[in-house]
Sequence to fold (404 residues):
Amino acid sequence: MDQNTPLTPAFPSRLPEVGTTVFTVMSALATKHQAINLGQGFPDFPCDLGLISQVNEAMLADHNQYPPMTGVSELRQGVAQKISALYCHQYDHDTEITITAGGTQGIMTAILSCVSPGDEVVIIEPAYDSYRPSIKLAGGKTIAVSLIANRDGDGSVNFYSIPWDDLEKAINPKTRLIIINTPHNPTGMVWQTSDLDRLWNLVSHTDALILSDEVYEHMVYDGCSHQSIASHPELAARSFLISSFGKTYHVTGWKVGYVAAPTVMSKEFRKVHQFNVFTVNTPMQYGLASYLKNAEHYLSLPAFYQAKRDYFIQGLEQTDFKLLPTPATYFQCVNYTSLNILQAKMNEADFCSWLTTEIGVAAIPVSAFYSKPVESGVIRFCFAKKEATLSSALERLQTLNKRN
Fold:
């Protein structure tokens, strides 16, 4: 280096263990090899043009300056009404609903608002990758328990269940927050009413708060219903409920979500929110407020995505992948260890890389959702895609049956 080149001072990393996410890595690999990207969780089809029109109308009506810090009142009212209609819980839209820059910002802000240095936060792995860094930035300590991987006779994972014994052991007087995720990314597992009751039994004699990540709340299939934390009054009284308009309305790039929480919790949440984002895109909020008035836009979502799930499953059943149950989300997990190919012995990350470069379909290793990779031979596909995209991906995946 030239002696005259100015030097940037060294400084300690706040997140020394964090690198590029697996989603970015796999998407870049898919682009490089012109693979069909079923890895990252976003649709490849457009949103409703009616929603675009309502955002355009908001812009033309000059809703282009800062909205209230907590979010546009009409949108907060719509969120409160939706939660009341679906889950029979009344949130005050003025004091208990906050519009956020997506679910991830809501998660980080909730953690920063209540976790202090030395506090413990319990998470259940495999887990969304933003949880741990947010806890670390707050000075908290992550206590991870793992979903129980239930296995077939040949040892391959066939479904996941909640690790109640480990969860009970993890909760102690230092526990400030417990993060749950239902419907669950990446496994598609859903919590039942009995699970919420059991969680209440674990926390009822503690001061632990709950963060319930419910961004896939409208993607539950086979006639079942999402069991929101809001539907359990005792848990709702100590919970942050996180959800996402981006996931619900196929506009992940808009990054708009919301957090519902009791007034005392929302007050602390908003103290942080006003300084890490202040407020969220104004015309998008007005457009979403208008669009939200028609409940059919989210009530129709289970049938819409179940049709995609069933189409994708039907195609995968013509392969030697073992399909795990998909009661919710827009992700399908499969076990690849029974494939009659040498690559079936690879670890999950290497298999996904091979699948992308050689077969032309990108997936995500479930092992990447653990702090330290747990190998189970399970990978995740996203089926929030056009039928033509899924059809092309299935044609490529079905060639695996012909390989020796």
